[in-house]
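ok so i was messing around last nite and threw this chain in just to see what happens. nothing serious, just curious
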Amino acid sequence: MKRLLVSVLVLSFAFLLRVPAWAVETPSTEYTIGIDDVLDVSVIQPEKLDVTVTVSPDGSITFPYIGNLQVKGKTMAKVQEEIQMGLANGYMKYPIVAISLKESRSRKFSVTGDVLRPGMYAIDEDTTVLKAISIAGGFVRYGPASQVRVIRAIKDGQASQAIVVDVKKAVNGDSSQNVTVQPGDVIEVTEGKFSVSGDVNKPGIYPMEDGTTVLKAISIAGGFIRYGPASRVRVLRPRKGEFGRDTTIKVDIRDITSGDTSQNLLIQPGDVIEVTEGKYSTSGDVIRPGSYPMEENVTVLKAISNAGGFLHYGPASDVRVLRPKSGDSGYEIIKVYMKDIIRGDSAKDLVIQPGDTIEVTEGRFSVAGDVLKPGTYPIEENTTVLKAISLAGGFGRYGAASLVKIRRPKKNEIGHETLKVNIIAVIRGDSAQDMLILPGDIVEVTEGKFSVYGEVMRPGMYPIGEPTTVTKAISIAGGFTKFGSASRVKILRERPDKDGYDTLKVNVGAVMKGSSKDDIILLPGDTVVVNEGIF
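result:
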């Protein structure tokens, strides 16, 4: 209450004495006082007193009569009020105080790095990044090619953010890039540089120049060591706002040298250009597996030749190319058909790219089950099912009555598909049934069996033996019961696509009367069903 009364009296007294307006003008409420600020403080009434004070590092000023007064972070109006109250508290009657900012030393920014006069400077209301760099004497060398960022404190100084400034755009009038400087900002100016590493004659760090492209950068670094356009080139570009993380940009030097200027991208400050000698690898069943330098137009066949050629089986080998995907995210697998290439189909002879791996695996297949020599065998030209069984020593006990199927790896998938082989038809000369073996196939030979159910004396499953007909199968199963009907016999035969069964009716009565053409030969897996007679 006392302070309010003093303030009212002070203002009233000032009015009566016609104190000039500047003496009691309320200072700006926007400006807050900081360390090193210089203040002019004048006591106008009841006695004249002018004092210039500097805010100390602890945020205080020393004023006659009052002593130390904390002012940091306070507005000019607040400090004026506190000085008046302090003087009125036993020292002066109805004091009138005026305060003004003589020099704002607390509102500063810093410029560091590649400028002529790095240091700390006082801030003006309209100080932009370009103006700040100009105050610091300007760029040392490279101007718009330099790298500039503003480090600004956030969250009461507990953290900071980095604002990247595109100097070229700012110089060309883009006001969004010409950031307004705030108190405490640190403007970092670094000479625009890029690096070239790897298979160049002079790897190192180089200063930026306007219009520096990938090809020009490699030229500045002395050019390629050996393989020129066959070399592998990529640019590692720092991501904005993500320290330690780079964006990888692949560059096709062949396209650039062929006139594709879109590939010859402009270098940015901080870019790292990696040049690696163009190489490819050959692995597996070749004479000299290993890594080889790229040359112009190296095809799969030439690459295998450079590696000494196939170890054993030539065109029957399984060949594929593993090609790195863009962005280093795994491989693309490309199957190569060597038989077609060697027969003259050059369109299928793939041109190798740097980083490719040519995998050559000896073409092999396996024969398992009821054969004399089960095992894995190298594939040869035109190896069929029957030839594969022959290579494995032939059938065991059941010969043509065996059940034969091929388990074949699925293309580009995990697992196998199963293909049934009608080996009886093959042995009888149906070459269409004698399918070609592919690398990785497994030929399974198992004991052929058939089943007999219904009105027979001993229903069940039996080995198929040498060509077994329906009537022989019924005989093996003990013959008909007294209810069995010779005219009501059928065969259930699994369809090739495994989608259900086909039903084949058999007139056993006609067979018994001498019609051998009606006595169907059973296949492994067949089921003979004998039904009751109809009375």
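not much to say yet. The chain is about 15% helix and 35% strand.
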